[in-house]
């Protein structure tokens, strides 16, 4: 029996939002107001599609984007945490469920040599077109009213667990590590023995504490983290047990 670690990516593994970081490649490192104001809530992926067209139109090439993305800092303590998980892979399965995209996550993990730590990455598929433009698609279709149109993290996690179960794999405990509002849906599906680890001061922590105040708390344990050292301390306790 292993433990399953589920990570969000932006503001969790890395200390920034990869989608907004890419704007450093734009002329004057900013987007025109018309483009910036074109975002509609729940439709982030389409908005990023327009950002990538703008970058392509301005001659921003793949190698420049890659160089820029691999300068994003990891969250405090995260490099040590991922190293620790990598050394203990026989105890941990580890996945990413993220609203970023396959290209950005792949670049960042490979540049830091962490791609082998993760068994699977569930995120919006991206690729460079024949003309050299980055394109991004929705991860899937879903019917969850709480989640953005392109990705229901709860559905992605459930499908992964179902697939593992079919192969005879079940987990002693699921540890969900994230920061954002879109992490609440999968956290709501966790069981009593599981643990949600929201990042201190971020939306997920606020939403979980709001639910507790409304007397409809989440069904799992909650442990807040501010540095990945906090997460590592918890995992070390887990494997000692």
UniProtKB/TrEMBL annotation:
<feature type="binding site">
    <location>
        <position position="8"/>
    </location>
    <ligand>
        <name>Mg(2+)</name>
    </ligand>
</feature>
<feature type="binding site">
    <location>
        <position position="99"/>
    </location>
    <ligand>
        <name>substrate</name>
    </ligand>
</feature>
<dbReference type="InterPro" id="IPR006384">
    <property type="entry name" value="HAD_hydro_PyrdxlP_Pase-like"/>
</dbReference>
<feature type="binding site">
    <location>
        <position position="179"/>
    </location>
    <ligand>
        <name>Mg(2+)</name>
    </ligand>
</feature>
<feature type="binding site">
    <location>
        <position position="19"/>
    </location>
    <ligand>
        <name>substrate</name>
    </ligand>
</feature>
<feature type="active site" description="Nucleophile">
    <location>
        <position position="8"/>
    </location>
</feature>
<dbReference type="InterPro" id="IPR036412">
    <property type="entry name" value="HAD-like_sf"/>
</dbReference>
<dbReference type="InterPro" id="IPR023214">
    <property type="entry name" value="HAD_sf"/>
</dbReference>
<keyword id="KW-0479">Metal-binding</keyword>
<dbReference type="GO" id="GO:0016791">
    <property type="term" value="F:phosphatase activity"/>
</dbReference>
<dbReference type="InterPro" id="IPR016965">
    <property type="entry name" value="Pase_PHOSPHO-typ"/>
</dbReference>
<keyword id="KW-0460">Magnesium</keyword>
<comment type="similarity">
    <text>Belongs to the HAD-like hydrolase superfamily. PHOSPHO family.</text>
</comment>
<keyword id="KW-0378">Hydrolase</keyword>
<feature type="binding site">
    <location>
        <position position="10"/>
    </location>
    <ligand>
        <name>Mg(2+)</name>
    </ligand>
</feature>
<dbReference type="Pfam" id="PF06888">
    <property type="entry name" value="Put_Phosphatase"/>
</dbReference>
<protein>
    <submittedName>
        <fullName>PHOP2 phosphatase</fullName>
    </submittedName>
</protein>
<dbReference type="GO" id="GO:0046872">
    <property type="term" value="F:metal ion binding"/>
</dbReference>
<feature type="active site" description="Proton donor">
    <location>
        <position position="10"/>
    </location>
</feature>
């Amino acid at each position: 029996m292993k433990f399953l670690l589920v990570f969000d990516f932006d503001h969790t593994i890395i200390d920034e939002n990869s989608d907004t970081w890419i704007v450093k490649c734009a002329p004057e490192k900013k987007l025109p107001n018309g483009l910036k104001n074109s975002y509609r809530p729940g439709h982030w992926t389409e908005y990023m599609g327009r950002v990538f067209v703008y970058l392509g139109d301005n001659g921003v090439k793949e190698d420049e984007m890659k160089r820029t993305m691999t300068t994003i800092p990891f969250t405090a303590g995260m490099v040590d945490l991922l190293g620790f998980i990598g050394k203990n892979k026989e105890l941990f399965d580890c996945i990413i469920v993220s609203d970023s995209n396959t290209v950005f996550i792949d670049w960042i993990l490979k540049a830091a040599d962490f791609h082998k730590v993760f068994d699977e990455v569930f995120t919006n598929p991206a690729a460079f077109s024949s003309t050299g433009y980055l394109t991004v698609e929705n991860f899937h279709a879903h019917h969850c009213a709480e989640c953005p149109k392109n990705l229901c993290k709860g559905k992605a996690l459930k499908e992964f667990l179902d697939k593992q179960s079919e192969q005879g794999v079940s987990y002693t405990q699921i540890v969900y590590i994230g920061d954002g509002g879109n992490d609440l849906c999968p956290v709501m599906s966790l069981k009593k023995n599981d643990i949600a680890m929201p990042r201190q001061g971020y939306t997920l922590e606020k939403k979980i504490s709001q639910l507790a105040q409304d007397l409809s708390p989440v069904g799992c344990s909650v442990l807040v983290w501010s540095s990945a050292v906090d997460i590592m301390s918890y995992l070390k306790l887990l494997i000692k047990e």
